[in-house]
Design brief:
The protein has 120 residues and is mostly beta strands. It contains no helices and eleven strands. Strands 2, 4, 5, 6, 9, 10 and 11 form a seven-stranded mixed sheet that branches.
Amino acid sequence: HVQLVESGGGSVQAGGSLRLSCAISGGPYTTYCMGWFRQAPGKEREGVAAIGRDGSTNVANSVKGRFTISKDNAKNTLYLQMDNLKPEDTAMYFCAADFVNLQLSRHYSYWGQGTQVTVS
């Protein structure tokens, strides 16, 4: 049974930084492709960044140059470093995993519960 647990969200002023973490358990971590998504109230969930098994990354244009996705295979943990945060980055952030390389598609099989990021 695959489980994803996000942490690291919080409230920050515009221009600040946060690092989100996503711990994954219940499966062979290195076989997963993973991604970060966010959903603001009244809006659809959108892909923010994705990382493949080989470490290749894909970052949404809206956060390119500000957000960085990475993973630590030894710790079974996915990260999202968010710099120069803007009020429009305010959302619930979710991590997701799948055996298929879905990039920024929302069709991932496994999802965490989310962590709130608020930028004022």
